[in-house]
Amino acid sequence: MGKVYLTGAGPGDIDLLTVKALRVVREADVIIYDRLANPDILAEAKNGCEFIYVGKEDSHHTLPQEEINEEIYQAALKYDTVVRLKGGDPFVFGRGGEEGIYLYERGVTFEFIPGVTSAIAVPEYAGIPVTHRGITVSFRVVTGHESTNKSHSQIPWENYKTDDTIIFLMGLHRLKVITQKLMEIGKPKNYPIAVISRGTRPDEKTVVGTLEDIYEKAKDLPTPALIVVGEVVRLREQLSWFETP
């Protein structure tokens, strides 16, 4: 039985792939990769490496998570070195824990390789610090895509009345709901918010607005997209460095 490396691919820019992740990609007998992993990473694999795509996007999943878990397990039965390549970091809304538990229950040896999370890297490429002295001392990372099987929201909206920076991952299709919820708990209509599309990639695009107008400004941006809410958004005017004006 082989070993599985549950590997973070980072937020998109291939230069943000870690040295350790690159090493196991080059050693892999099979790479099971998702939609958010930069496909250029696969070019680093050795000759003969098998590639299995298990990408997910809104309303269209190549395989449900349970079948992805089994795909990884079956690969471990067949190959010595299995790389499960996941966008961002395996433990930040990456289902890495679920996949690890599935392997543990079947006696498969595995290792986690952290990846640069989009929650920090994407705002940074857009010139938006998630913390800044004198503005905020904390930030929250929240899923913007809750399971449709839940009878009620698991997001504790009432806790978001503070001045924390709030980062929503996978939330573009719920942007209107997110802004309405934040205004309902008392955030002012002119509170700053940014939507960053395809962050850290050459075609990155950031749209800045307020809770009141951001939906109309950003609703047609391509995914993946990340949402940043907070006064730190105002710093983009001084700190933007990556996108072409």
Low-confidence stretches: none
The helix content, as a percent range, equals 10-25%
How many helices in DSSP terms? 7
> How are the strands of the largest sheet arranged?
3-2-6-1-7
Second rung of CATH, namely the architecture of the largest domain: 2-Layer Sandwich
So, the CATH homologous superfamily of the largest domain? Tetrapyrrole methylase, C-terminal domain
Largest sheet features: 5 strands, parallel
* CATH third-tier fold name of the largest domain: Methyltransferase, Cobalt-precorrin-4 Transmethylase, Domain 2
SSE order, one letter for each helix or strand: EHEEEEHEHEHEEHEEHEH
Kindly provide the radius of gyration, computed on alpha-carbon positions and rounded to a whole number of angstroms. Answer: 19 Å
What characteristic shape results from the CA principal axes?
elongated
Q: Please give the number of β-strands.
A: 12
Structural class: alpha/beta
Oligomer: single chain
What fraction of the residues are assigned to beta strands by DSSP? 15-25%
CATH class of the largest domain: Alpha Beta
* Terminus-to-terminus distance: 52 Å
Q: What do the pLDDT scores average to?
A: 94
The overall number of domains is 2
Write the layout of secondary structure elements.
Blueprint: E1 3-8, H1 19-27, E2 30-33, E3 50-53, E4 56-57, E5 60-61, H2 65-78, E6 81-86, H3 96-104, E7 109-113, H4 118-125, E8 139-143, E9 165-169, H5 175-184, E10 192-197, E11 205-210, H6 214-218, E12 225-229, H7 236-239
Parallel strand pairs: 1-6, 1-7, 2-3, 2-6, 8-9
Antiparallel strand pairs: 4-5, 9-12, 10-11, 10-12
Helix pairs in contact: 2-3
